[in-house]
């Protein structure tokens, strides 16, 4: 009953609204596929699709690999030291997005930010990264990885702990070096966890909104304008509930289709490796 009320009914209502010109609240006239035709000819929407895909490329795989690397280092530690180090990496994940914004807005401030010393050393000048179309999206991606990586680390540590130490002992007796132990023991056995993390990251990053809204508002020059921001603007600022529902349904289908496809492909690859 809860599933029907909280998921099925709102989804069905969204599909229904996508075929109307209804405002955010209230009824509207049936317009057929006019919203869909308009959507795929809307240059701002097409830009938002591209920017969302770019953000996914910048975050999903790097976030997963960094999480695996950190987890492999943390899992070698023992006792209290392991708990402290794990807490340090996981701590950013529990911060609200507004706190993350305040931290990095100060760190990257053009006049007073401590990160500007590094940026100046690399580029030769201080840069207002969130008003620069080249720097804005990569910097939001970097902050997102810093913010969410701890969750991946936690999942990977759980997977690594399930690998029997006897397998590593046997590999060492056979003369396998550290890289070979990782390649032939760790990687095949941790692959199901990797597939899960990649799928979770894909879903989360396709729904990127908070960081973009707080740091750049979609700018500069719409260079960081993403799909959820497009939906938010059409629904809550322009009061176009039907058109926003069309974009939301498209995003829903993209997330569902890509996540299922990716997970199945990765699971099949994992079975082949095994």
Write the layout of secondary structure elements.
Layout: H1 2-17, H2 34-39, H3 43-74, H4 79-90, H5 97-107, H6 115-123, H7 136-161, H8 165-173, H9 178-206, H10 210-215, H11 227-237, H12 241-273
Helix pairs in contact: 1-12, 3-7, 3-9, 3-11, 7-9, 9-12, 11-12
Keywords for this entry:
single chain; 274 residues; mainly alpha; 12 helices; globular
Rounded average pLDDT: 91
Helix content: over 70%
Distance between the termini: 40 Å
The number of helical elements comes to: 12
Radius of gyration: 22 Å
Major sheet summary line: none
Order of helices and strands: HHHHHHHHHHHH
Low-confidence stretches: none
How much β-strand is present in the residues? under 5%
- SSE class: mainly alpha
Number of strand segments: 0
Shape: globular
């Amino acid at each position: 009953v809860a599933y029907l009320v909280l998921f099925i009914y709102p989804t069905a209502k969204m599909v229904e609204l996508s075929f109307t010109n209804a405002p955010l609240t209230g009824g509207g006239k049936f317009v057929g596929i006019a919203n869909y035709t308009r959507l795929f000819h809307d240059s701002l929407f097409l830009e938002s699709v591209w920017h969302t895909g770019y953000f996914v490329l910048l975050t999903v795989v790097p976030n997963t690999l960094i999480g695996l690397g950190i987890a492999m280092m943390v899992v070698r530690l023992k006792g209290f030291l392991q708990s402290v180090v794990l807490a340090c990496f996981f701590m950013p994940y529990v911060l609200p997005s507004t706190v993350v914004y305040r931290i990095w807005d100060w760190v990257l401030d053009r006049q007073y930010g401590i990160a500007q010393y590094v940026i100046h050393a690399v580029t030769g000048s201080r840069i207002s990264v969130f008003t620069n179309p080249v720097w804005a999206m990569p910097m939001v991606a970097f902050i997102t990885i810093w913010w969410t990586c701890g969750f991946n680390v936690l999942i990977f540590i759980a997977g690594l702990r399930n690998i029997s130490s006897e397998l590593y002992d046997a590999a060492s007796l056979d003369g396998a070096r550290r890289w070979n132990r990782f390649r032939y023991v760790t990687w095949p056995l941790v692959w199901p966890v990797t597939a899960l993390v990649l799928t979770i990251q894909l879903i989360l990053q396709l729904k990127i909104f908070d960081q973009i809204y707080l740091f750049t508002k979609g700018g500069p020059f719409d260079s960081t304008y993403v799909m959820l921001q497009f939906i938010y603007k059409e629904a809550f600022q322009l009061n176009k509930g039907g058109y926003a529902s069309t974009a939301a349904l498209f995003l829903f289908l993209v997330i569902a289709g890509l996540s299922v496809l990716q997970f199945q492909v990765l699971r099949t690859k994992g079975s082949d490796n095994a």
